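Illustration 12: Tfp pilus assembly protein PilF.
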Amino acid sequence: MHCPLVAPHVRATRWLLTVALLSSASASAQTLIDTSAAVGIQNTLNNVAAPSPVPFIQRANTVVQTVQSQQAQAAAQVTTPSSSVSSPSTATRTVTVMPLTAQQQAALTAAQASFKAGNYALARTQYEALIAQNYNNPEPHFGLAMTLLSLKDEKGATFELGQFRLLAPERFEGPYNLGVIATRAGRYADALSLYAEAAKLVPGQAGPELQVQVWNALAGEQLRKADYAGLTTTLGALQALKPDDLDIQFRLAQAQFMSNQGAQALPSLYALLQKQPARTEAIRLLADIYAAQGLPERAIRELDAGLTQVKAGRDRAALLLHKANLLALTGDTKNAVFSAQAAHLQDRSNVDAWLREGQLRLQRSDRAGALKVFQGAVQAAPRDAKVRVELASLQLALKQYPQAAQNAAVALTLRPDAATQARAQYVQGVALYQRQQYAQARTLLNSSALAVRNADVTLWLGLANYALKDYAGAAAALTESMKLNPTLTVRQNLASALLAAARYSEAEGILQGIVKDNAKNSDAWYFLGLSQRAQLREEDARKSFKVAANLGNTRAQQALVQEPGK
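Figure caption equivalent — predicted structure in token form:
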């Protein structure tokens, strides 16, 4: 039984940009360091991805001096943790730390020289020989660990750092470097615990730069975990170490904002802007704090004040786009359009500003204006897949099917991300369906459906299957669509597909639900009659046909005079 389907309206999906609360910044790369060259790290709240692998600390001058002083004294008794890589546990044992003899100290110096010269194989042999002579001194274990790391033997290095930690639990290099290994292995919870331990130990053991490095590593893991309260504490400690560092001051303000302490960040932000009045990310954060306090007008005034200080076109565009977002949140979409437009006039390459203006125009039902904006965006960024898909989506809504299909196809050649690719496949698939190219449409819609669960995608996939007389496939796709969003259109189309697939009782169940919800739906009454007649329940079928006929359904009128089975 072949029944006509009800085609849904094509809707332009509006992918609204959210207000960017965090400004863009990058973390500096981190490499191995030695005593004389400590490399600092920048980890900001903006860097939500995994931080760059932190560097291993090979030696801190202050620690060397402390150890050499200890070696001149008698052996010390220390209480040590278990051999676990995590922070010290309650299981402990007593280890006697043995000082190096003069001959062993000379051997240690030779091994360190081999390491410094890059002769890691020789250094490994020298350190291992020294460990065989004096296992209970931490220095050879530490040197061997650094050597094994240089030889990419992290398993061996982990063991040696564990031994070093047993012998020198008061030193920060052990937990810190184990934290580095844990970060690189993706064991972030372990890394967080180890860095926290190192941060407790490092004060008084190393200079400010190394302390900053340790605290930054801890901050990176707290950021990964979204522990903004802990991050606020850590960045406060960093600021105490480097009170004149404006980047740390800004990161602390970000952390306070993210931990719902935005008002507390205002004094330091204003102080920062007195020194760097054109710092765009700080101006935006200031506006966000006021917006979060329920003061969007104040936030907009802060952006306007910042615009008087900022001269670079790219930075002005960022502030104007931010203003557009805030205006939209207040419901002033008219001025939001003007602000977004001003943003891409300042910086033609600001794709987000183009898209935002187009989306705002769609909110104001200005499809013609939005179309011009998206076309301008494509000219400004012809290799941007998201821009192409925005244009294609609007063209689809405007029933410009050839243009929509073409732009969606181009987007698929521009290496889009997974979400953009799925959306482009959906737009191209619907456009091809409307041009009766059902086989190609089904292939594209099926690929989109496999990538993302979406009611509209599976609805159109069902329609394409139905057009190809694959009624089982149509029923399966439409069933999935109904699970995601049981609209009337989906339910009626599913009932039609089930009728065509001779699954009459299932179709009847869906149609009974439709007429219960809307007793004046003549098509649903007609299809209900068909499902009942197919089940040889002629009396029920005629009742349904009569209701449909009384509602003006001409097919139901014909069904009443038609003999069953013909």
